[in-house]
Amino acid sequence: MSSQMTSALPIARSASEGRRKKRNNRLQEVAMLLPACLLIALFLLVPFISSFQIALTNQRLIPRPVPTRFVGLGNFAQVLSDPEFWTALLNVVRFTLMILPIQCGMALALALLLNQKLPFRNFFRGVFFLPAITSMAVVCVIWATLFQYPAGPLNQILSFVTFGFAGPIDWLGDTRFAMLSIVLLSAWQAYGFQMIVYLAGLQNIPESLYEAARLDGANSWQRFWHITMPSLRQTHIFVLIITTIQAFKLFVQVNILTQGGPRGSTNTVVQYMFSAGFVDQRLGLASAVSIILFLIVLVISLVQRFVMRDRP
Amino acid sequence: MSGSATIKPHAVKVRSTLLGLAVSDLVKASAVAIIALVIVSPLFLLLVASLKPDRFQILADMGSFRAFWVSDPSLQNYRDVATLDGSLPMGRYLINSMIILVITVCGGILINSMAAFVLAWGRIPGRALVLTLLIGLYIVPQESIVLPLLSLVTKVGLTDSFTAQILPWLASPLYIFLLYQFFIQIPQEIYDAAVIDGASPLRIYWSVFLPMSLPALATVAILLGIETWNQYLWPLMVTQTNWSRPISVGIASYFGHDSVYWNSAMAASVLMMAPVLLFYLAFQRWFVSSFISSAVKG
User: Fold this and answer.
1) A132–B272 C-beta distance less than 8 A
2) Which residues of chain A neighbour B272 with C-beta distances below 8 Å?
3) Is residue A298 part of a domain?
4) How many CB pairs under 8 A join A and B?
5) What pLDDT digit, counting tens, does each position of B195-246 carry?
6) Alpha-carbon distance A136 to B252, whole Å?
7) Does the residue B174 lie in any domain?
8) Are residues A43 and A89 in the same domain?
9) Closest to A247 in 3D by CA, of A291, A295, A282, A297
10) Which residues on A lie below 8 Å from B67 (Cβ)?
11) Which of A18, A107, A138, B187 has a beta carbon 3.0–4.6 Å from A194's, enabling a disulfide?
């Protein structure tokens, strides 16, 4: 629209000059768009496409003198028949099922608390958000000391609360508790993000709904259950999906604290891929895992789009 | 709402008085303050422990309230870790992280916003196609491309370099899309006025659109900054020596030994956290709104 305006300017200017200017403008636009497109093509698109190609070969990270062979779907067959991979996948599902209620419950409770009239509300919101800006490496250092066996803070609290009945737990070293420990520190680090998402959701609920309910004599529990929860439907779905996707990418805390152990109890899909591709140098096998990971994330994202489009 | 179908005209007033009597604002605030203290106490514990030079004392104190108290604070841990050479030179790692952060954030803002501007207001054909491709690529997680990327970087001999840690993450579909959504909301009249003044696209972008887009640019700067600062998987694979290693990987290397030097790990953690915390204290509202916009649009 405005390019016509440019050429229709009442300034005396020859047509060829206008054309040249237009061409220059186009060239400028191409030059502005190109860096991003080139970088994304080179560092996202090319690796992504080549992962499909590599997954069909027995390529090594550092090539050996033996030439790389085409192995068809052999890598996928090998991954899918490896009990360790299934353990890793199952661990991720276990992680998701454990962290969802803890993290979302905590986030929603704090959001409800902060959504009331409260002195120093912004200050508190800032304080509750602090763990969310703490880097995972730092979170690992902190929680590794909290988890100390046998006399760390968590074990002391546990012993105090149960009057010495529950013995000290080797949080990160016991196959029964290692994943729970990873869940606890992950929930502590990430609840702040969910909290502000819930806060934003709460602030979108019209006050008139609550007033009407009060006039109907609904108590606060009924108001929560019949107004707040249904109004937060979209937020719930969003938080659920994001948490699930994040769970499937679980890696940093596991890699730092347990390396997937003890006895595979905290192994995850990405940790499995990392060991196969980087530690064991089996690039073909690891690429097959990365494609499986992509497909899982893709399916979850599609489910999200489908469910969230369901209702406006 | 069972059983209480009768409408009380003064229900609202009665309720608020009752509530006002039951829990005053101050009691509520103190309750929230206690919860906040409990949740944030691990961070306080980290700071306190980093001031204790004896690593055995840190562990001995951990099980009691002495964990929250340091009788003779010392900066010895910081002096020990903030070095530029040695086996785990945290000072060097911190500087590496900062170099990577500054270049990635500045370059990333420029490259992503230029692309977003052309996609939103440019005249060249194929823009819609590029946008669709970008949105499609957004789903691809970093985790599923790092290994082929590592193979590529190894082939061109860029392992253990700053380039390999910066270049791949400068352009990002997410940030282009966030900025695109911001640019597209700017009124047509503003763009038209600039065109009538004879401004070129580059000029319109630089002198008209960028100054109007500070909130969006701040959002991208904060999200990209946090993301860069916390990078772990990629630098873990691509760095091989202290030359280019960032602090996240540096701190992780305290683990995996029989006895962890907790005093050093604590001090290094505070060093890693401090820059983020300072920025957070200065721009708290921006941080929170950035995370919200990444959630709503991402």
Assistant:
1) no
2) 135, 137-138
3) yes
4) 307
5) 999 899 999 999 999 999 999 999 999 999 999 999 999 999 999 999 999 9
6) 10
7) yes
8) no
9) A297
10) 153
11) A107
Angle (CA) B230-A186-B60 rounded to 5° is 95
**Residues in chain B closer than 8 A to A68 (CB atoms):** none
User: Of the candidates B77, B105, B132, which is a domain's last residue?
Assistant: B77
A interface test, pick of B27, B144, B269, B287 with most A CB neighbours within 10 Å: B144
Q: Determine, for residues B119 and A33 on separate chains, whether the beta-carbon distance falls below 8 Å.
A: yes
In terms of CA atoms, which chain A residue is nearest residue B222? A133
State chain B's mean pLDDT as an integer: 87
Chain B residues with CB under 8 Å of A125 CB are 288
Mind listing the pLDDT tens digit for each residue in A245-292? 999 999 999 999 999 878 899 999 999 999 999 999 999 999 999 999
Domain of residue A25 covers 13-54
What's the domain count of chain A?
Answer: 2
- Name the residue facing A35 among B35, B58, B171 (closest C-beta): B171
Is B141 within 8 Å of A293 when comparing Cβ atoms? yes
> Is A63 a domain residue?
no
| pLDDT tier, A13 (very low <50, low <70, confident <90, very high otherwise) | low
Query: B123, B151, B208: best mutation site toward chain A, by most A Cβ within 10 Å?
Result: B151
**Do the chains contact at A137 and B170, CB–CB below 8 Å?**
no
- How many Å apart are CA B170 and CA A305, to the nearest integer? 27
A83 and A36 housed in the same domain: no
Nearest CA distance, B185 vs chain A (angstrom): 17
In total, chain A counts a number of residues equal to 312
| Block residue for tokens 């008139």 | A208
The total of structural domains in chain B comes to 2
Q: Is the ipTM value over 0.95, yes or no? A: no
Domain co-membership, A92 together with A39: no
Q: What is the DSSP string of chain B?
A: --S--SPPTTHHHHHHHHHHHHS-HHHHHHHHHHHHHHHHHHHHHHHHHHT---HHHHHHHHTSGGGG--SS---HHHHHHS-SSSSS-HHHHHHHHHHHHHHHHHHHHHHHHHHHHHHHH---TTHHHHHHHHHHHHTS-GGGTHHHHHHHHHHTT-TTSHHHHHGGGSS-HHHHHHHHHHHHTS-HHHHHHHHHTT--HHHIIIIIIHHHTHHHHHHHHHHHHHHHHT--HHHHHH--STTT--HHHHHHTTSSSSS--HHHHHHHHHHHHHHHHHHHHHTHHHHHHHHHHHHHH-
> Coil, strand, or helix at residue A258?
coil
Q: B291: domain range?
A: 90-297
> Residue B258: which CATH number?
1.10.3720.10
